[in-house]
Amino acid sequence: MSSDFSYEAEILKVVTKIESQKKKSARINIYLDNEFAFGISAETFNLFRICVGQQLTEKQINMIQQHELFEQAKEAAIRYLGLRIRSQRELELYLTRRKKYPLTVASRVIKYCTERGYLDDKVFCETFVRDQLELNHNGIRKIRQALVAKGIDREVIDEAVKNLVKDEDQVKAAWIIGQKKASTLKNDPKRRDKLYRYLIQKGYKPDVVIKVLQKIL
User: What radius of gyration, in Å, describes the C-alpha atoms of the chain?
Assistant: First the structure.
């Protein structure tokens, strides 16, 4: 074979039909060479300005489909974030593990959401700390562990703890749940040890637990 024919010419497909889907009018079906090829959102359709008679290469078709994947993942992310505040790591796991989107698509969606303020690990961290302190009465050690598991940077955690967590508040919170627990252990000879372990498991530091035990017992 001569060098003039050392590669194949890029295959072109022609857009032969465009129609709205019957069940989802906001979505559009694209036909190539008189056969159904794929469905896309109005956002993807408008971005690429697809029209009947247009010729598309395989590369262009792939670009359209990849962007459509992003649009679908973005829509799923916005619904997910609308339920409650999330961390970046939580959104990443939701998109990749539950919704099965590629990591590259999930990363692009996370960037999109972060740039628009839909996703903010600092705000998430501060909200989580407040809720854990006020609603669940958890100690700071347990709160830290939970935030690390949710993918929050340690520097962000340290800043939130510094601004929001006071030793006297930890003593008060531990005393509240400690009293409730102590009432279930009235006749238990190991009452002190069990109460100590309970408060440690709730995430309170040993010095806080000792102060609380002195108040309760």
Answer: 28
